[in-house]
Design goal:
The structure is a single chain. By secondary structure, this protein is an alpha/beta fold. The protein has a single domain, classed as Rossmann fold (3-Layer(aba) Sandwich). Helices cover 38% and strands 16% of the residues. It contains 12 helices and 8 strands. The protein has helices spanning 49-53, 57-60, 90-104, 116-127, 152-155, 161-171, 180-190, 193-208, 216-219, 239-248, 264-267, 269-281, and strands at 17-21, 24-30, 36-40, 65-69, 109-114, 132-138, 226-231, 252-257. The longest helix is centred in the C-terminal third of the chain and has 16 residues, at 193-208. It is globular and about 50 Å long.
């Protein structure tokens, strides 16, 4: 099998680094200097920090220190065995990110998450409020939406190349060009034995919870300045979810992208990064915690 390192998407990848987060290690890559800006990927099969954020990181690095992490069970982070009692739940992800921020020991950070990463950013900010400046939630999970047909591409993924193509097709807008490199990259990550086992366990957990959402009173606890970004054409998380997050989160701002699906940071990396950095760097937007 061709090494992932030979895939064009990995060219110029920053050095791999690790931090101990609870009982396992978290892998990350970083660029630049300045305020640490933690980038949290979503929960789709084959996701990882570098693959999701590689086009945004050099832009972020012009004015910040972007750090893209691999959530537990993904990429190069540890993959605890669910058969030995490890539970792949949202609480575990929230705690992992909170522990990462503490272990980084670099002062208050900004959190930027896409999809389930957005919900993870919110959860970590609630766990360690004094270590977080601002939060950006892009295409974020969290609101109960019922059964969404395009989500089945993720929850019923069969670990095939065609299955990966269906996932990516459900995430991006209809006009977005899907390269074979991206499909190949994510597919190879997804079939790693540990990743596959952890992903399957997390999908089962989601089904047991009847979706990936939190009580509205939980979401409303977030008091940090928060930017909610969403694509008008998002078929995985409906636009109504963004509207509801804006209603629930007291100090929230919104940015809605036309002609955009669930992957704003991949479909429109420059626009997403510029909008995000304008929000993060605006000193007039202050916390009211």
């Amino acid at each position: 099998m061709e090494s992932l390192r030979d895939n064009p998407i990995y060219q110029a990848k920053p050095e791999s680094k690790f931090l101990q987060t609870g009982d396992f290690k978290t892998h990350y890559v970083e660029m630049g200097s300045g305020v640490p800006t933690i980038l949290i990927h979503g929960g789709g099969a084959g996701a990882d920090g570098w693959g999701n954020w590689r086009n945004c990181m050099p832009i972020f690095a012009e004015a910040a220190r972007p750090i893209a992490i691999d959530l537990v069970g993904f990429g190069q982070s540890d993959k605890p065995d669910p058969d030995e009692g490890f539970v792949y739940s949202q609480d575990v992800r929230d705690r992992q990110l909170a522990d990462f921020v503490k272990a980084l020991d670099a002062g208050p950070v900004n959190l930027v998450g896409n999809s389930t990463g957005g919900l993870t950013a919110l959860g970590a900010a609630l766990l360690e409020p004094d270590l977080v400046n601002k939060v950006v939630m892009m295409g974020s999970a969290g609101i109960e939406t019922g059964v969404i047909e395009p989500l089945k591409a993720l929850t019923e993924y069969d670990f095939s190349v065609d299955g990966m193509r269906r996932i990516i097709s459900s995430l991006a807008n209809p006009d977005f060009p899907i390269s074979d490199d991206v499909i190949d990259y994510r597919y190879k990550l997804s079939i790693d034995p540990g990743v596959r086992k952890g992903y399957s366990a997390f999908m089962r957990w989601i089904q047991e919870q009847h979706g990936l959402h939190r009580p509205e009173e939980f979401l409303a606890q977030l008091k940090h300045p928060t930017l909610v970004v969403h694509g008008k054409l998002d078929r995985v998380v409906p636009l109504s979810s963004a509207h509801r997050l804006l209603e629930l989160i007291e100090n929230s701002y919104g940015s809605i992208f036309p002609h955009c699906g669930h992957w704003a940071m991949i479909e429109y990396p420059e626009l997403f990064t510029n909008v995000t950095m304008q929000f993060l760097n605006d000193d007039s937007i202050q916390s009211r915690k």
